[in-house]
Fold this sequence. Notes:
This protein is 33% helix and 23% strand. By secondary structure, it is an alpha/beta fold. The radius of gyration is 24 Å and the shape is globular. The model is unreliable at 258-268 (pLDDT under 50).
Amino acid sequence: MSDPAYDLVVVGAGPGGYVAAIRAAQLGLKTACVDKRAALGGTCLNVGCIPSKALLHSSERYEEAKAGLAKHGIRFSGLELDLGAMMAHKDKVVADLTKGVEFLLNKNKVDRIEGAASIAAPGEVVVSRNDGTADNLTTRHILIATGSEPSPLAGVEVDEKRIVSSTGALSLESVPEKLIVIGAGVIGLELGSVWSRLGSDVTVVEYLDHILPGMDREIGRQALRVFKRQGLEFQLSQKVTGASVGEQGCAPERRAGGGRRRRGARRGCRATGNRTPALHRRARARRTGVTADERGFIEVDHRFETRVPGIYAIGDCIPGPMLAHKAEDEGSICAEILAGQSGQIDHDRIPGVVYTWPEIASVGKTEEALKEQGVSYKVGNFPFSADSRARAVGDTDGFVKILADADTDRVLGVHIPWPFAGDLISEAVIAMEFGASAEDIARTCHAHPAMGEAVREAALAVAGRALHI
Ligand SMILES: Cc1cc2nc3c(=O)[nH]c(=O)nc-3n(C[C@H](O)[C@H](O)[C@H](O)COP(=O)(O)OP(=O)(O)OC[C@H]3O[C@@H](n4cnc5c(N)ncnc54)[C@H](O)[C@@H]3O)c2cc1C
């Protein structure tokens, strides 16, 4: 039998797939990366992290100009929203970055192949092109990096006009008068914030009795207070069981905790929501013996290998946080393993950030998880109202919360609801990667005046000796 054409064929060019392909090529593996999308970068670049962050940033500037700068002595008159220009900026950011990925694949001599891939057998990938032609790629290893897609919600049919998924919510042509967001998770809160800042009357309906499921509950409570103050309305403990579209708009059907069914008419009702692993692609892979758990995530071992030798999977289509940087890290590690190196990923060291205002960043264990696991812990809290730089900037809502092991003082979790928390959290991630204790952070000199001083003070607070409160 002749040698396969490739050492590695990666299916999917999202942050997991394209990073894996680049790393594999750097390590000398002959690599191809297949994606059915014309633009590279997957969900993250095309309809996820990047367009949402562009809109979050633009809408934040608009909100700031409307209401946030007067306290700094800066006043505007005749302020106008040009939604078309805002969307054009977002589209340009996306286009530039997707071209950047193309450049990187070329630079690293990765063969980029456009088309829908299916796995015919271990070592064989069939790529069907839009023009009806197909290619058979032979390879030593296959990496499935097919990501995720918006979850269907029973009774709610997405038409991407009146009822939209997160993808449609990134490209609305006008600001809806009213907007109903289904789900108070990260994506719902980010997109709800965008449209609320731009003038929509936003209601967030959530099945649970709290927002931001999975995050530390104290942080969720603080965030809820701030979002309400910003004008977002919340209906918690409500299950959406359907949605209908009429002339006046659309109306979600909700079932309250007590079982009573209510109907509320809303004009311009939209849905955003959770994501699910790319199921139909998994089904194709299943013919080869690749298995998935009951939620549809592909089962892999600690080396990212599926039940079928030679077929690997990473990113959103396997268990773990559905985050771009998690997919990237898994992509790099998997490529290194295929090249004969070793590596592993620890989900407790993957930071998560909600890019609302304030940003909400966290890494490691929540207080609820520690209680559930019976771990005894100490808490250090420090409010930004006592941080000199935060006062100068004028953003004093929020705090740093550090959870440390009661016996060893090792940092187990850090949670920060605060406008620049997404950057501050990196310090906590590095500390935890190095197995730092709260004392280690407390004894590390931090520049003054800087936001990071609040992290140090929270570390001091773990031992009950914060200095500035
Ligand atoms: C609105 C929104 C905002 C988000 N914001 C953030 C954020 O701020 N930070 C963050 O970390 N994460 C964020 N995410 C999540 C992030 O986008 C994903 O975790 C990340 O993209 C997963 O990367 P991936 O490589 O596993 O898959 P994906 O990015 O989903 O890429 C998979 C690729 O595979 C391709 N593909 C699938 N099947 C086939 C096939 N059969 N043949 C060929 N190609 C195929 C798809 O076309 C796609 O390009 C956000 C997601 C959304 C929807």
